[in-house]
Structures are given as C-alpha cells and as structure tokens.
C-alpha cells in the first residue's frame, strides 16, 4: 500500500508509491517506457478496452456500451496508481515522523481514440470533449468528502514524463490541498484582503492593456506569457471573467476556451518545433461543511481564479532549481510572447 | 542585464537571465551542449586557463601563478552568469509586479585537473580539496554584506543539467535567502522553539539507532536515505555533531566527511550504474548586523544543521510534481538504503 510521508524540513509531502515499486535495475534499463509502435498493442485503442481497468466515464455519442469502442474520450483508473480510493486516509506518527495512508484516486483520461492525434492537432471539438471530461470527473469526485483537492495534468513528450505515446491526461485526487495550490490560495487571499480585488483579474486586465506578453485572446479567454514565468515559453490561459471553479464552466464559454487552447498550443508547437511540455489545471477546491481552516477558505470564490498553465520542458531543472525553489529562465516572457504571437 | 522577478501566486522568484538569452532555435538544436571529446578544447584543462574568465581562487600546492597550470581546484566566474556582482541590487515596482536587479555572483568550481575523473572516482584528497574550496569561497563571499545566501551545487550527468563533461560544481550567491532554504530555516526554528532541540540532530540520532535507512557512518559523519526522501535513492550526508555553518569545518573533521562522501558516491554509482544526480549543500546564512528579520534568525546557530543532499535524476519530474510541489517516489528509502549498504 502506498503512503504519504511528511518531509519536515522542506514542509512538503511525498507519496511512497509501492504499487509502482522500483528496484535499481528497473531504472538502469531506461527511465521511459518504450513507445508502442504496433498500435494493436496500445491499450488506448478501439477494441483494446479490456486491456485497461474498467472505465469510469466516457463520452459516447452513439450510445455504445461501456468498455467497447465508440467513445470519444475515456477515463479509467491508472493501472499502477500512486493513490487508491480503497486505501486508508488515516494519519499516523512514526517516531518523530508523520505519515498518512495512500488514500486518493489516480485516473487516466484518454482524450481521443486516434493513436496519432496529439494535442497540437486537436480541433475545437477535441478540446471541448477533453474539457467536458475534466469537468465531469471533478464534479463527480468532489462528492467524496474525503477528497480535498483534484489535480489534472498532461505530460506531453518524453522529457515531460510521458510514458505512452497515445494522447492522455492524468487526474490525481488527494486527501489534502498540495503545497503549491495551497500557496496560490493563500497568496490570492492576501491580495484580496488588501485590495478587495482578485489578483489574476488585475493581472489579466493589465496584460491585456500592455499587450506585449499576450499571445491570443477572444471574448472570454486570454493566453499570455506571464511576467514572472518560471519556465521559458511558459503560458497561462485564463478566463477574462472572474470564476474560481473550473467545473462550473458552461458549454458556451468552453467554445472560447477551446479556441484559445487550439491557437496557443499550435503556435507553441510551431515556434519550438514540437516541444515537450506539462499542462496543469489550477481550480479552487470546494468550500464545504467539512472544510478545515474555514477562516482561510472563506470567500475562496471571490479571490481564486482558475487557470491553465503550459510549462515547456526545454531546459533542465538542475541543482539550482531543485535546491532553492527559485528558477532561471533564459527567455524573457515578452520575447517568448512575441515569437508565439507572430508565428503563423 | 539579468533581473529577478517575483511570481506572486507561487510566492517565488525567477531570474530572467538575459546574459544567457535564448531564442526559439537555440532550444530546437539540443537542450544540452555537446560533450567535448577533443580535450585540448576543454576550457577546464591545464594550459587552457585563458579560455575562462580570470580565476578567483585555486589550490596550488606548487605555488604556481594564477591562470597557469599547477592547480588542484580552480574557481572563476561563469562565462554566462545568471547574476553579476556589478549589477544593481535595487528593488523596483513595475505596475502590479516586483522586480530586483540581477545582483549576485555565479562561479564555476573545477574540482580536478583530470578531464576523465568524475566524482565517483574521487579519492579522499580530491574530496578534501573540493570541500576546502567550497569553504574558502563561502567565507570570502559572505564578507560582502549584500550577499544573503550562498548556494553550492553540482550537476552530474546530462539529465541533471550538466553541460560540460569535465567535473565541476557551481556557486550562486544571492541577495535574498531563497524559498527552499528559507522554509528549512523556519521549520528548524519551529522545531527548536517547541523542543529546544535541533530537528536534524534528532533525525540523525534516530536513524543511526534504527539503522535501516543508514548507508555508511564513521565517527563524525553519516549518510542515509531520509524517511521522506522526495527522490528515489535520495541521500543525506550530515555531521553527527551539531553545527549550523559548513564553512566552520576543520581539516580534521573534513577527513571524516570525505570518507563518507567517497564511500557513498561510489555505492550510488555501483548500485544504479553511473546515474545522473544533483548534489546540493545547505548551510546556514550568516547572522550579521544587517540581517533583516533578526527575530527569525536569532539563534540560527542552535537550530540549523548544515548537510549535503544527493538527488538522483532517474525519474522525470512531471505534471504532478511541477503543479503541486508534492512528489512521487517509487522506491521506499529503506529499500534504497539496503541496496546501497549492501553493494560492494
């Protein structure tokens, strides 16, 4: 059973993932799984639904049965989950240390039945299907009060941690709000208490006026390279209207989001020639009866602004970043945005 | 001129390194520099001292002149520094954002004149020379009151960010205490205020008694896989006696440190077959007349415990780690330690 362990000095948690347990020779061979070139062996293909755990959700416009072909997106548990819903959520002491059972969920979201279609080739409807799937999984999982935070991300390219070629995202549902989103919540709250405004609303309004870091915008959404981008060519995509919770998005607004995503990802792909990247969704956790520290999360709907980040992996995080949590970015965001804006 | 920019939501700083400025095609070619196979072209060889900026420090037992052969270790400014001592340390506002001039220092520490000798081949004296060099640079740089923190690290292997093959470490001196060491200081202080004991002293005593996560120890030093290791096969090396500041180390104690380092690095190299890793030194910043937040850093000598971390880069940091600052470690530290302890 996997477990969480608390790193006291660095004030963060690590999942010791025994389900994925690796001995030294597992690392020696290769740190990446082989891409599957024989698509009949790919577990994410039509007809191979029995090669994955049973599906949890799928978009099936033809009304086909679960675990059969006909789906446009398909969600199932990760075969080697970092966390499991069956594990204990109990917190325990161990000498001077703290640990917790590996309770949570770890799901795979296959975004297209097409083995050869990657995110830079997605059309508007592919993005809409992907976002509907994200939304439905978030809404469903937060019904379990033991789940405090849902993290959805995509690893694109092997340098970004992708292990299977067929396009997919992952969802990890956690019994705590992780360190980074927690910091973002506290910082947003600090700004709100001082100014009675949302930080991200202010940032978006300013960037839209200045223009130099903007990549693309339409009525409801904007993509830009933020002023203090930690990674070269880092991109933020956010609604221009204030909303804390991604899962409240309507199909109408989703069209504008899909439009911005499609143009932005294509521009990134052309500018850097198919770069590896991670995509991350930040959305406010629910404010519920069981929320701990109610005084912190009170009014989270006013001060948190959901958004997506695209983090290109074209430099290597090294001893500076790993040891300080500061970053070195060799491309000023305004230059990155200019390249991205101008590429055709 | 490079500059620091503050990322408000993530509460961290990024160095926008214009000296290393990269346009899209710089990333397209390769994210790593080519290893130099013709050693006559390596700027870290005897006779090539004029291919680096002038040296700042060197160990020269033969009394040879600066910038000539004869050295055992040699330190000079990075040719493409992230920070410069000539840059302004001034803090400025920019609309809603905060920035600071790129003041600091960025040095290269060549640890051996031998192009083919890597850290896993270092003998006891090589390690002693390396640590003397670290110590002397730290002592010298902290004489500049504008420098608030010195970060020394080594990138070993290209997946760990190494760009030139010849063995070297880097030193970055900063005008602020970075996020991660600052957290470690605050956490150590919290523990000390509660228990009147040093957290790391307690951890070392416990691990030494339990034994299952210990790799190697002698009279004064210990190496072990810490309970909440963020990376598989992560290793901590620390003095068994309490000391906050690495730069106070005597030559006598350094022998024991070199002994632990040599055995530990060799064991890691054998167990994982020359894995890439980052090595990081954590040492308390000085408590001086100009220290800001004196009430925080008061008694830092009592509560901070200097140590070294070795972070193997055999898994890929992906969308989970980058988006949450939590970690997934697929090898329990007690298993990693067993492999490392038993390898011959």
Give your account of this protein's structure.
Two copies of one chain form a homodimer. Chain A is α+β, with helices and mostly antiparallel strands. The first copy, chain A, has nine helices and 15 strands. Chain A has two domains: 3-174, HIT-like (HIT family, subunit A); 181-342, HIT family, subunit A. The first copy, chain A, has helices at residues 24-29, 124-141, 179-195, 199-210, 251-272, 294-297, 300-303, 319-324, 333-342; strands spanning 3-7, 12-16, 57-59, 73-77, 91-94, 97-101, 105-110, 149-156, 168-174, 214-217, 221-224, 235-239, 277-282, 307-312, 327-329. Chain A has a ten-stranded antiparallel sheet with strand order 3-4-7-9-8-13-14-12-11-10, sandwiched between helices. In chain A, helix 2 packs across helix 5 (251-272). The model of chain A has no long low-confidence stretch (mean pLDDT 94). Chains A and B meet through strand 1, strand 2, helix 1, strand 8 and strand 9 of A and strand 1, strand 2, helix 1, strand 8 and strand 9 of B. Chains A, B: Its EC number is 2.7.7.12.
